[in-house]
């Protein structure tokens, strides 16, 4: 059978063309936020709010919590703190995460453009921008969004170094980015072989002597970045070797059974965050068979092999090391860089066949279709009740992605349209079938308003206790318990909970079985107007002299609550009323 003739239209490579493409990509996050901003306000998970607390009070936290592994994730904490230092909380959050999305998109576009050309870079960057789990990762304060951005930046720099001039300086920059990546989370060391392999494949195998010299330059950049972070950490009041708490935490984690690991049968049916990686992996065999039709055969093969290899590394960590990385969306999000790199290789086989006019129409259609899918909200509770295995719905509607080349190779424009439709529908269903952010919805009101409520409570706590040494106390059975827990998380209050019940005190010891002593400041969180009086009475009955510091209303979109601040000034003399 005669091989179809390839038609590759010329692609604009001028700075003006690149600037035009980047302008579109940089505007997309704002458009997505206007059409549906839930992704920008994070998820109701404790760790994300712990990092928010660091962003607000980094120097204080570096000095107060030197042993916590959160403290050592400096490449996440510094950007957040710098933005929050110059802007009020809500504006800082928006600016930080919009910049994070824009940085990741620009880096992915620049890397992919050098690998597969302008069309593929622009098309897949638009698809990346609208992917729900990319947005969830980069819109939250958890570390995976920062890690993804560092991976894309490192890919872009490594690709440029492999293909052009200024190789050695760029390799030093890539080494520095590798340090920032691993500093975000030690687990992200899994990306280092990928980045090294990417550089070597794109560059072409040099002699052993040249390879060693270039590896040494990259290592020098990594060491320089590490030394810089050590000095910055020490200058802000922390320890010089900022990474030590992470090393200790990783060591303790591998020595014990992970308590957060579930049996596969309980999470695989709901793992909608794995749908797109699985669909793209399903297209790998067809892409490899047709690689010879591409003028970028070697790079195309690499993009597919890298995705398969990285997925199996994650699978080995999940199964062999019994670490839940695919089980949780905030680790499975690390599949996104290789997933979209592989998708770029696959669609390049289709996009290279189009004339410029057809490509432009399909690009406009993809922007409109993906934005429209992002703006639609389905009745997710009804969807979840109908879908016993939620993962199957987006999987079924996304099958056009791996089938496009196999079934419609001779009609490239139809294949591309099928890919766009599958991306839009599978993404729409995946976003509406997620369960991990539903606690926001159960609290009532919009997510941005709930974010503001927690942020306001954090600001009040800081006003009354800049320390931070504030203890928190609320009724664990209160309907607002999830919200109160997030407020406490901003101050790393895990060891500073007065009690798990309210207004009961357990023999003068807190929830960690440590003694309650004079000098403690306590914030009581409750919807009940009498909570402050009840809490004060409980402390006085235990023999403390209690001084009220103030009471503040924290308005919310659903239910407001009060924060009552008091201080234990001492103990009553023996024989006084209320003395033990």
Please provide a written account of the structure.
Helix 16 (297-319) packs antiparallel against helix 18 (336-351) and helix 25 packs across helix 26 (481-489). It contains 27 helices and 4 strands. It is globular, with a radius of gyration of 26 Å. Strand 1, helix 26 and strand 2 form a beta-alpha-beta unit. The chain has a 4-stranded mixed β-sheet, with helices on both faces. The protein has helices spanning 15-35, 46-56, 58-64, 74-86, 89-116, 118-130, 132-139, 143-163, 167-184, 191-203, 208-235, 244-254, 264-267, 275-282, 284-289, 297-319, 329-332, 336-351, 356-375, 380-386, 392-397, 400-408, 412-432, 438-442, 447-464, 481-489, 531-541, and strands at residues 471-473, 521-526, 544-554, 561-571. 47% of the residues are buried. With 580 residues, the chain is mainly alpha-helical.
Task: Please write out the topology.
Blueprint: H1 15-35, H2 46-56, H3 58-64, H4 74-86, H5 89-116, H6 118-130, H7 132-139, H8 143-163, H9 167-184, H10 191-203, H11 208-235, H12 244-254, H13 264-267, H14 275-282, H15 284-289, H16 297-319, H17 329-332, H18 336-351, H19 356-375, H20 380-386, H21 392-397, H22 400-408, H23 412-432, H24 438-442, H25 447-464, E1 471-473, H26 481-489, E2 521-526, H27 531-541, E3 544-554, E4 561-571
Parallel strand pairs: 1-2
Antiparallel strand pairs: 2-4, 3-4
């Amino acid at each position: 059978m005669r091989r179809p003739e390839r038609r590759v239209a010329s692609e604009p490579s001028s700075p003006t063309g690149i600037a035009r493409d980047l302008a579109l990509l940089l505007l997309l996050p704002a458009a997505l936020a206007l059409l549906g901003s839930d992704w920008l306000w994070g998820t109701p998970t404790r760790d994300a709010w712990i990092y928010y607390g660091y962003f607000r009070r980094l120097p204080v936290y570096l000095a107060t919590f030197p042993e916590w592994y959160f403290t050592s994730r400096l490449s996440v904490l510094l950007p957040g703190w710098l933005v929050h230092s110059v802007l009020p909380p809500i504006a800082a959050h928006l600016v930080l995460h919009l910049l994070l999305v824009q940085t990741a998109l620009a880096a992915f576009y620049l890397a992919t453009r050098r690998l597969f050309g302008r069309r593929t870079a622009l098309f897949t960057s638009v698809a990346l921008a609208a992917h729900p789990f990319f947005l969830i990762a980069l819109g939250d304060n958890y570390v995976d969004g920062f890690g993804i951005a560092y991976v894309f930046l490192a890919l872009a720099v490594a690709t440029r170094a492999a293909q052009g001039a200024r190789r050695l300086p760029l390799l030093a920059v890539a080494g520095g980015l590798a340090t920032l990546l691993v500093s975000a989370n030690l687990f992200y060391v899994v990306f280092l072989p990928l980045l090294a392999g990417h550089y070597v494949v794109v560059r072409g195998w040099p002699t052993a002597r040249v390879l060693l010299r270039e590896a040494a330059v990259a290592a020098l950049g990594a060491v320089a970045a590490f030394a810089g972070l050590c000095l910055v950490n020490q200058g802000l009041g922390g320890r010089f070797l900022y990474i030590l708490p992470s090393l200790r935490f990783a060591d303790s984690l591998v020595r014990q059974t992970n308590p957060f690991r579930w049996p596969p049968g309980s999470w695989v049916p709901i793992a909608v965050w794995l749908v797109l990686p699985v669909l793209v992996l399903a297209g790998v065999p067809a892409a490899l068979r047709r690689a010879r039709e591409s003028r970028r055969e070697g790079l195309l093969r690499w993009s597919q092999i890298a995705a398969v290899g990285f997925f199996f590394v994650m699978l080995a960590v999940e199964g062999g090391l019994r670490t839940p990385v695919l089980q949780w969306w905030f680790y499975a999000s690390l599949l996104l860089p290789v997933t979209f790199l592989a998708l770029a290789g696959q669609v390049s086989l289709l996009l290279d066949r189009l004339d410029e006019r057809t490509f432009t129409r399909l690009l406009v259609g993809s922007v409109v279709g993906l934005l429209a899918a992002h703006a639609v909200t389905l009745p997710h509770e009804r969807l979840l009740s109908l879908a016993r295995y939620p993962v199957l719905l987006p999987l079924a509607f996304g099958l056009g992605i791996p089938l496009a080349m196999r079934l419609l190779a001779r009609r490239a424009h139809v294949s591309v349209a099928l890919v766009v439709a599958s991306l839009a529908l599978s993404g729409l269903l995946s976003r509406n079938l997620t369960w991990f952010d539903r606690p926001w919805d159960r609290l009532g009101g919009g997510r941005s308003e709930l974010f503001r409520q927690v942020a306001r409570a954090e600001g009040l706590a800081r006003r009354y206790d800049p320390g931070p040494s504030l203890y928190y106390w609320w009724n664990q059975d209160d309907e607002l318990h999830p919200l109160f827990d997030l407020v406490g998380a901003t101050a790393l209050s895990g060891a500073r909970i007065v009690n798990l019940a309210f207004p009961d005190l357990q023999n003068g010891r807190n929830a960690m079985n440590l003694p309650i002593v004079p000098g403690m400041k306590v914030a009581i969180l409750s919807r009940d107007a009498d909570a402050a009086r009840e809490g004060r009475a409980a402390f006085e009955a235990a023999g403390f002299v209690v001084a009220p510091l103030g009471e503040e209303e924290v308005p919310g979109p659903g239910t407001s609550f009060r924060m009552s601040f008091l201080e234990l000034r001492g103990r009553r003399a023996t024989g006084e009323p209320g003395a033990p």
